[in-house]
Amino acid sequence: MIAENGGESLSKCATKSCMVCRKIGIGRCGNKRLPPGSRVIGVAKITRNWLLFVIFNCQPDKQLLIMIIKEIIKQLSTNLSSYDITLYPPASEQTLLNFEQKLNCPLPDDIKTFYLFCNGFESAEDLFRIIPLEEITDRLAEYEPNSFTFAEYLIYCDTWEIEINPSNPNEYWISNQGTASRLLTKSLAEFLDRFLAKGVFGDGGLYTWHDEIDIRNKPQ
Length: 220
Fold this sequence. Notes:
Helix content: 25-40%
Number of helices: 7
Largest sheet: 7 strands, antiparallel
Strand order of the largest sheet: 3-4-5-6-7-8-9
Number of strands: 9
């Protein structure tokens, strides 16, 4: 579906010329070939109206990552009353620094941007949380290096984990750590957008995402 090797054509996005595509100079997505060395590392559906094709040359672009997560922050800020969530107060720069020191690895720029907006949140209906950094810090010894649980459901009955590439901290993986570990996405924005759209159990929410991954990975 999505080109991963230099020189291959991109799949077309819904709008043919979305904001991010214009910003990184693609124009009409379907009419541009990836330059050698480029790779598509993820697709995020932002505000459920258009698709972002996230394209990076060699390494993820910091400004592009921040722009994408800011779309989610804007969505949260302007529609907070329509969500059944309570935002925690923003994390401080010192809290972020302390966390990175304990983790012994820098956080991805989009994740830092999100935590500077809010130090996690909780949903009353689904008993789902994005976990505050201080709480994650207290549990870091339980996880593999460069990894931590950032989201949980029903008091840690199910969890979602971030694993960071220490040689390139803006490259990371989000997986579900339930009955079977599943790699879901490389984008916090996509993860949050999915939860905000359909919650944990809704059609198109986090658990149906798990099912989609299971079906995709099932041997033929």
